[in-house]
Amino acid sequence: MHKLPTEVHLNPQGELVIPVALWQSLGFQEGDRLIVHEDKGRLILENQETIKRRLRTRFEDVSQERSLADELIAERHGAGKKEMAE
Question: What is the pTM of this model?
Fold first, then answer.
């Protein structure tokens, strides 16, 4: 497992090269699709498949008959009606 901080450099095209030992220790493989986002000034890089698995696990207990989108819409409508009544 690779735990030491590793210095990397951006090239003029803005590309970043991740050292092989680091991406292998993270379970990345050549050709993987990675998702990158910023969080409080930090660059977060995750394997797309890892994100999908995490989301499937997070919502596995949600019934197939239940619509989270419909629940959210109903909640927003209720909040809007409450605001207009005030």
Answer: 0.54
C-beta separation of 9 from 1 below 8 A? no
Q: Give per-residue pLDDT as tens, 11-34.
A: 999 998 888 888 888 888 888 889
User: Cα(78)–Cα(80) distance, rounded to whole angstroms?
Assistant: 5
- Containing 44, the helix (H) or strand (E) segment is strand 42-47
| Whole-number Å distance between alpha carbons of 76 and 53 | 29
Please choose, from the candidates 26, 48, 44, the residue with its C-alpha nearest in 3D space to the C-alpha of residue 36.
44
Q: Domain spans of the chain?
A: 33-85
